[in-house]
Design brief:
With 334 residues, the protein is of the alpha+beta class. The chain has a domain at 1-58 and 305-334: Orthogonal Bundle (Hypothetical Oxidoreductase Yiak, Chain: A, domain 1), CATH 1.10.1530. It is built from 12 helices and 13 strands. The chain has helices spanning 5-18, 23-38, 49-57, 86-104, 121-129, 181-189, 210-216, 225-242, 247-252, 274-289, 305-317, 323-333, and strands at residues 2-3, 68-73, 76-80, 106-114, 133-138, 144-145, 152-154, 159-163, 170-174, 199-200, 206-207, 259-266, 319-320. Helix 1 (5-18) runs antiparallel to helix 2 (23-38). The two termini are 20 Å apart.
Length: 334
């Protein structure tokens, strides 16, 4: 069914207020979930709302808490999320990293004891809009086998890198599984298969069936052994810098909460050659664009380019939302 952005924001704001968020917090949460949906990231936008509310009802997300600083040294800080909303915590820490970067050229905030930040790209876009490069990542519950193993021992630890650009920001937003669990959920809702193998089924066979992979809970690391190694390194960095929980410790909780995250921002305007920087970015993008596609009618894209196309289409035509999910959200308000 088609839903306008205004209708979605209005409904979600009412829902979050019902579950005791302040009007200001509810407005922010509604806007972030709507923006993710507008950009085509249904899995961490509208589709994630029922799970978010379930965490609130179970007391896993603390309504009355907020992230607080606990240690500072120059342009680096540690914060404690106090199990508050992952979105509100991530926005706060992104803004703090931006402010540190504007003062020092670079800023880093390491956050512990937080909850799922939903779409990681949200914070990359935010940093880019403020003129900052960003490198952001989070650990997760164990949901992938380390390469060569059977049992889940590593997380799909999403990584975000953004670069501000006048003609369209460059924003890489990727989980370290071949497909995010949210993407697999979205395809399962539409009874569609994955275009490539995305994980193992219960019989230890690589599969394109999203339901089989979701049932087994065993996603395939992107780049096979390379993605496995990168997942471990990001987990180590997030854990060490925040002095928080590792993927191993999160797994002991049986529910994905008390995560560790890193927000690093760089202000490229610290150098005086911003026009030169812009030319360099455009040169790289043009070189990538200027090639013959394998399939007629297609093209290559820089990270974030297709998001801008989807955003423009959604704003014009509305968002095609899964009817089952929307009805579930409406029932939560009653």
């Amino acid at each position: 069914m088609s839903i306008s952005s205004e209708e979605m924001k209005t409904v979600l704001e009412s829902l979050f207020i019902k579950y005791s968020f302040t009007k200001e917090q509810a407005e922010i949460l509604a806007r972030i979930h709507t923006e993710s949906t507008i950009d085509g990231i249904f899995s961490h936008g509208i589709n994630r709302v029922p799970v978010f509310i379930d965490y609130v009802k179970r007391g896993l997300i603390k309504i009355d808490e907020t992230a607080t600083p606990i240690a500072s040294m120059g342009c680096m800080e540690r914060w404690d999320g106090n199990l508050a909303s992952g979105v509100l915590n991530a926005l706060k820490c992104t803004d703090r990293a931006i402010n540190l970067a504007k003062t020092n050229g670079m800023g880093l905030v390491a956050l512990r004891n937080t909850n799922h930040w939903m779409r990681g790209g949200t914070y990359g876009w935010r940093a880019a809009e403020k003129g900052c490069i960003s490198i952001l990542f989070t650990n997760t519950i164990p949901n992938m086998p380390a390469w060569g193993g059977k049992e889940n021992r590593i997380g799909n630890n999403p990584l975000v890198i953004s670069i501000p650009r006048k003609e369209g920001h460059v924003v890489l937003d990727m989980a370290l599984s071949q497909f995010s669990f949210g993407k697999m959920q979205s395809l399962d809702l539409k009874n569609e298969e994955l275009p490539f193998n995305g994980g193992w089924d219960r019989n230890n066979n690589l599969s394109k069936n999203p339901k089989a992979i979701l049932d087994s809970g065993r996603a395939l690391p992107v780049g096979y052994w390379k993605g496995s190694a990168l997942s471990m390194v990001l987990d180590m960095l997030a854990t060490l810098l925040s002095a928080g929980n590792s993927t191993y410790k999160i797994g002991l909780k049986k529910t994905e909460t008390a995560l560790s995250q890193v927000f690093m921002c760089i202000d490229p305007s610290t150098y005086s050659d911003t026009d030169f920087q812009e030319n360099l970015l455009n040169e790289i993008i043009q070189f990538t664009h200027d090639c013959s596609p394998i399939k007629a009618g297609t093209k290559t894209y820089y990270p974030g380019e297709r998001t801008l196309v989807t955003r423009a289409r959604s704003q014009k035509e509305g968002m095609q939302v899964n009817t089952k999910i929307w009805q579930e959200i409406l029932q939560l308000i009653v």
